[in-house]
Amino acid sequence: MHGNQPDNQAVASNCGAAPHCGSYYAATINKTLSFPSLQGERRADVCVIGAGFTGVSTALTLVERGYKVVLLEQHRVGWGASGRNGGQLIAGFTGQEKLQKLHGQEAAQLISHLAYRGHEIIAERVEKYHIDCDLSYGYIDVASKRRQYRELKEWLGELVQHGLGDEVELVSPERISDVLGTHAYVGGLISMRNGHLHPLNLCLGEADAAAAQGVEIYEGSPVLDIQHGDTPVVTTADGRVSADFVVLAGNAYQRLERPRLGKLLFPATTYIVATEPLGEELARRLNPSDLAVCDMNDIPDYFRLSADGRLLFGGLCNFTAREPRSIQAALRRRLLAVYPQLEDTRIDYAWGGKIGIVVNRIPLIGRASKNVFYSLGYCGHGVNTSHMAGEIMAEAVAGTFERMDVFDKARHVRLPLGGKLGGHLLALGMLYYRLRDLR
Ligand SMILES: Cc1cc2nc3c(=O)[nH]c(=O)nc-3n(C[C@H](O)[C@H](O)[C@H](O)COP(=O)(O)OP(=O)(O)OC[C@H]3O[C@@H](n4cnc5c(N)ncnc54)[C@H](O)[C@@H]3O)c2cc1C
Fold first, then answer.
1. Do 217 and 73 meet the contact criterion of CB atoms below 8 Å apart?
2. pTM of the model
3. I need a labelling partner for 374 at 20 to 30 A (CA). Which of 36, 62, 225, 361 fits?
4. Which atom of ligand 1 is nearest to the CA of 53?
């Protein structure tokens, strides 16, 4: 293991403080950014809280549109889920079908456009700001069971009906082992519009672009309170920002606006390991088309190759504060079930990060008051969604709510318990899904 850290301790100790956690991504940062902490009083058009994809993307969209923005981060830019995730760029958002049903045919086009909006924004920014983040296209949903393969075929039928058949390719049970070098799956559906990237380098690249255009970024500046009013005031230990608007983008790491969000949003931890570089030949045998891979279980395993040929393998979902004794051991078993040929391959990095879970899985995108907006809870599917959300936040600041309302009008399930006890309730629910995955 790198840095002599036992895997789960790397999460507990490294991630509690200012530095990025001991991930493969942190070890391969290509841009070191550093920003001061907030001291004293600032005035802005918009104060954004949280510098993950949602916050950075919101800030960048706003500054491109001429707003004066202050961005406050309790640790470092990209410290949260955005700097630690699987890097899988997957279209759509969780709860999409429910929103489709809620809003009916009228909103169908708007919702299907939203599903790919994050992809478009990322591609535009990578090009415009020359962000080096290993962006690569190609992704496959894989079926572990016949039932799931039938679902993929039905899904393909729907895509064809909507004129999207050209974007995908069904992989038959006979062919899947050629595509992925494993007999663990019975089929798959490839999409060349989805893909994968180095999330921390993307987040840092976007923050750099935002700062270059005048966004004031403050790190090491946890927000303690938001005072609502005509000009809301955001308070940190050593400073205050008054702004016309506030955007809350703290996802599973934040505890602000508890009465409104506390029993709606629950943190869960998911984990990733990165092997040593596999070498060109082995990497090509395992994944010749360099696809990002995600299985179809309710608690999925997901994996891909990094730019330097490591296997990045993620999975598990933990609602309690208790970490597994060894992330490496817990994930290694799952990795070897897919690729037994990696029995002797070393694991170099192991880490975890928090995702925000919403009971009905519809992202929490809406208003806490007339000038305080929030966007969080993408249920582990946020690389694309967070970028779409950044644009929705910027629109709301400008007084346009059409796309925000697609989400804000959804009825959410408020659990009777918040915090740890609510997490335990959800853990019971997840146990049900885990058992269902075994069918
Ligand atoms: C291990 C893992 C794997 C994942 N894999 C994928 C994947 O492959 N594909 C995919 O689409 N999604 C994936 N996700 C989900 C995705 O990473 C998230 O949905 C997305 O990054 C959320 O972005 P965000 O900016 O909303 O939140 P975050 O990135 O968590 O950022 C929130 C930020 O707010 C800061 N903050 C919180 N409270 C305060 C406060 N009071 N004051 C100041 N700052 C504060 C935090 O420090 C943090 O930096 C994964 C997540 C994890 C953890």
1. yes
2. 0.93
3. 36
4. 25
